[in-house]
Amino acid sequence: MLPNHSPLVIAEQFGTLESLYPGRIDLGLGRAPGSDEATARALRRNLESSAREFPQDVLELMNYFSPDPGQLLQAVPAAGLDVPIWILGSSLFGAQLAAALGLPYAFASHFAPAEMMQAIEIYRSTFRPSPRLAKPHVMLGFNVFAADSDEEAQLLASSMQQAFVNLRTGHPTRLPPPLPGYLEQLNPTGRSLLNQVLSCSAIGSPRTVFQALETFIAHTKPDELMMTSQIFAHEARLRSFEITADFFNSLNSRVRERRRAHGF
Predict the structure, then answer these.
(1) Model pLDDT for residues 41-50, shown as the tens digit of each residue
(2) Is residue 54, in this structure, part of any structural domain at all?
């Protein structure tokens, strides 16, 4: 969340990470503060002006990774390092900026899907190739609550559902334990809220989750997916990721078979 930070400090921090772990570091830049006003004051940030300055701050940050030794200010050890830079967004602004700068774009469809398709279209149709990226590259967020049965998955998803409703109604909490029958207890306003913010989600058994993922991928054609599985119990969360991994292993096998069939 770049408005909370100095571009120079971020360049040096991520330059250090890249030096320690070469080729394993990506840098995602978002315009939102990611916090409330009290936290912003504690960070000594003016959020309104910081948000306006976001495009210029991104350019400044990118410049610190330039290998040009003649720069007035050098970021150590960032200068000359190849750290992939992404624009993060949940609105059309980020799509427009990522396209204009020729950067990859990650859309927060796992919690703010309302403008997803429009943002993808704007990004892909207005993309300008750059030295960093030759063609558009889109990452989308997707929630998975997978279990061995649809009933178990619905129960596990109630933790995330409670957390979202609490957050959007002004009572943020940590991820709570699952609550049986939560959706049935929820008022129509709460259910409508969940239907909107969690529309990019798969909840259910392997069969249910596989079908949802196939439909989402066919509809959006992302270059990458970032999966999130906010499940209260660690073992259940691991099981959800295992089921999700099975889907992608199966998908990769089908892609390889098609390529062999066509002589690739």
Answers:
(1) 777 666 666 6
(2) yes
